Amino acid sequence: MCIRAADFGPDHSFEFRSWHDFNAGHCAHFPVEVEVSTTAVVHSANNTFKILVVEKNADRSLVIKFGTPAIIAAFAGDLLGKRFLHKITMKTVQTLTGMLLRP
Q: How do residues 51-65 score in pLDDT, each as one tens digit?
């Protein structure tokens, strides 16, 4: 499926539109949980592939130097997200994104 556009539907499901479906007015709806889970699986597979390809040439001290803070920051971001994300509305996200993308 050629993805033309993605946005949140009125029932908070993530909505994919292919070029054909976009023109025909048909859309496949997926719950946000499914989309987040699918994204996690794809990114995990991609990172595993990168590790397998690069591991013999990686400088272990550099991996530890940058990897340790990255792992700690990922867990901290997860904890903050669980605590505060429910308080952020989609309008807030759209406003912040618009501010960041302004030239």
A: 899 888 889 899 899
If we measure between CA atoms, which residue out of 57, 59, 3 comes closest to residue 30? Answer: 3
**Strands 14-18 vs 28-30: parallel, antiparallel or unpaired:** antiparallel
Q: Are 2 and 19 in contact (CB under 8 A)?
A: yes
- Please enumerate in sequence order all residues whose Cβ is within 8 A of that of 28, keeping only pairs 6 or more positions apart, or say none: 15, 16, 17, 21
- In DSSP notation, 16-82 reads EEEHHHHHHT--EEE-HHHHHHHHHHHHHHHHHHHHHHHGGG--HHHHHHHHHHHHHHHHHHHHHHH
Q: Name residue 3's beta-bridge partners.
A: 18
Report the alpha-carbon distance of residue 3 to residue 1 in Å, rounded: 6
The pLDDT tens digits of the residues spanning 10-48 come to 555 555 554 444 444 455 667 888 888 889 999 999 999
Tell me what pLDDT residue 42 has: 93
